[in-house]
C-alpha cells in the first residue's frame, strides 16, 4: 500500500510578478494629485459657503438699516404734511418704501438661514459670533503680477494636470508591458516532494519506504503565436496612451483658462472695490444733499428715498466685491496648484470677531433755518 504524505511545487511566475510590480506603484503616483485636488476643492467649497453667509448677513444688515432710514423719512414726511409743508404723496411714497423694506428684510433673513445651514453642513455648528471682514482691511493683489506666469504654473502644477501626467506615464508603461509579451521569458522554478510507502499486510517482506525529493531549474518560454491576442492588447494600450495624452493636454488648457479667469477676477475685483468705495462716499454726500434740499423745498421726498436706496446698494455691493475678490485669489492659487491650509490662515488674518457689520451711518444733516432737526443717523 502506497500513501502520498505530502507534496508541493512552487513556480515563480516572473511575468505576473512584473505586471503586478508595474501596476501598483505607477497607479499610486496618481494619488498625490487626486488628494491635492480634493483638498483644494474642499477649501474652495468651504470658503465659498463662508463668504456666502457673510454676504447674506450683510444683506440683512443693509435691509434693517434701509428700513430704519425709510421709517425716519416717513415720520418726517408725515410731520411736514401735518403742518402743510408736504403733500400726501410724500407720505404714501414713504409708506410704500417702508412696506417694501419689510418684505426685503424677511427675504434677507430667510437667505441668511439657508446660507448658515449650508456652511454648517460642511463644518458643523458655527461659533458665535461669526468673524467678519475687517473694516479697514487692504486686499492683497496677485503675486507675481503676471498672468502668463500664473498660467504657466497652472499648466504644470495644477492637481488635475499632475493626475493626468501620472496617467500618461502609466499608459506608456502599459504599452511597453504588452509589447514585451512578444519576447521570450525565463522563469525560475522550484519544487519539493515527500513520498511515503508503508509495508504491505499481504507481503510481510515489504518494508516501509520514505522518499524526499526536490527540483530546481529555469524555464524558457518562447511565444510563437497566440491568436492575435498580444497584438490586440498592444493596440488597445497604444489607443489608451493617445487618450491619456489628449486628456493631459485638455487638463493643461483648462488649468490655464482657470488661472487666467481667476487672475482677471482678482485684478478687476480690486478695481471694483476701489470704485465702490468712492461710490459709497459719494452716495453719503448725495443723501446729505438731498435731505437738506428736502427741508428747504428744492427736493421732494422720493429724491431722498432714492438717494438712500442708492447708498445701501453701494454698501452691499462693496461688501460683496471684497468677498468675491478674496475668493478669486483663492481660485487663482487653486488653479496654480498652490492652494493650501496656509492660505486659509492668511484669509483668517483678514477677519475679526470685532468687525462692525452695521453699515456706515448716514450723517445727520444740519437743520434748515427755523426747522427742528430730526434724528437721521442710522445706528
From TrEMBL:
It is found in: Cell outer membrane. Gene3D superfamilies: Outer membrane efflux proteins (OEP) (1.20.1600.10). Transmembrane segments: none annotated. InterPro entries: OMP_efflux, T1SS_OMP_TolC, TolC-like. Residues 20-29 have a biased composition (Basic and acidic residues). Its main location: membrane. It holds the Pfam family OEP. SUPFAM superfamilies: Outer membrane efflux proteins (OEP). Belongs to the outer membrane factor (OMF) (TC 1.B.17) family. This is Type I secretion protein TolC. It comes from Cupriavidus necator (strain ATCC 17699 / DSM 428 / KCTC 22496 / NCIMB 10442 / H16 / Stanier 337).
Amino acid at each position: 500500500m502506497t500513501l502520498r504524505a505530502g507534496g508541493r511545487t512552487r513556480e515563480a511566475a516572473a511575468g505576473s510578478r512584473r505586471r503586478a510590480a508595474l501596476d501598483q506603484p505607477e497607479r499610486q503616483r496618481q494619488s498625490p494629485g487626486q488628494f491635492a485636488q480634493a483638498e483644494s476643492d474642499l477649501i474652495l467649497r468651504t470658503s465659498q459657503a463662508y463668504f456666502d453667509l457673510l454676504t447674506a448677513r450683510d444683506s440683512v444688515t443693509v435691509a434693517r438699516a434701509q428700513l430704519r432710514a425709510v421709517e425716519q423719512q416717513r415720520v418726517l414726511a408725515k410731520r411736514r404734511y401735518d403742518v402743510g409743508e408736504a403733500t400726501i404723496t410724500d407720505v404714501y411714497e414713504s409708506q410704500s418704501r417702508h412696506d417694501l423694506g419689510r418684505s426685503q428684510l424677511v427675504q434677507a433673513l430667510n437667505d441668511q438661514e439657508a446660507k448658515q445651514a449650508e456652511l454648517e453642513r460642511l463644518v458643523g455648528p458655527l461659533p458665535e459670533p461669526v468673524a467678519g471682514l475687517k473694516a479697514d482691511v487692504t486686499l492683497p493683489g496677485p503675486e507675481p503680477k503676471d498672468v502668463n506666469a500664473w498660467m504657466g504654473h497652472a499648466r504644470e502644477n495644477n492637481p488635475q494636470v499632475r493626475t493626468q501626467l501620472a496617467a500618461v506615464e502609466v499608459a506608456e508603461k502599459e504599452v511597453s508591458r504588452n509589447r514585451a509579451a512578444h519576447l521570450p521569458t525565463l522563469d525560475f522554478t522550484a519544487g519539493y516532494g515527500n513520498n511515503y510507502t508503508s509495508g504491505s499486510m499481504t507481503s510481510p517482506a515489504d518494508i516501509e519506504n520514505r522518499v524526499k525529493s526536490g527540483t530546481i531549474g529555469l524555464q524558457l518560454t518562447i511565444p510563437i503565436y497566440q491568436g492575435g491576442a498580444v497584438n490586440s492588447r498592444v493596440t488597445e494600450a497604444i489607443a489608451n496612451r493617445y487618450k491619456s495624452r489628449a486628456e493631459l493636454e485638455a487638463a493643461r488648457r483648462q488649468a490655464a483658462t482657470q488661472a487666467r479667469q481667476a487672475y482677471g477676477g482678482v485684478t478687476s475685483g480690486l478695481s471694483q472695490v476701489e470704485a465702490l468705495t468712492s461710490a459709497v462716499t459719494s452716495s453719503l454726500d448725495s443723501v446729505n444733499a438731498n435731505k437738506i434740499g428736502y427741508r428747504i423745498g428744492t427736493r421732494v421726498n422720493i429724491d431722498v428715498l432714492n438717494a438712500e436706496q442708492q447708498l445701501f446698494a453701494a454698501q452691499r455691493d462693496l461688501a460683496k466685491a471684497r468677498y468675491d475678490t478674496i475668493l478669486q485669489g483663492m481660485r487663482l492659487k487653486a488653479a496654480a496648484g498652490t492652494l493650501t491650509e496656509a492660505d486659509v490662515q492668511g484669509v483668517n488674518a483678514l477677519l475679526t470677531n470685532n468687525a462692525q457689520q452695521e453699515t456706515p451711518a448716514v450723517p445727520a444733516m444740519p437743520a434748515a433755518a427755523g426747522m427742528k432737526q430730526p434724528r437721521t443717523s442710522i445706528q
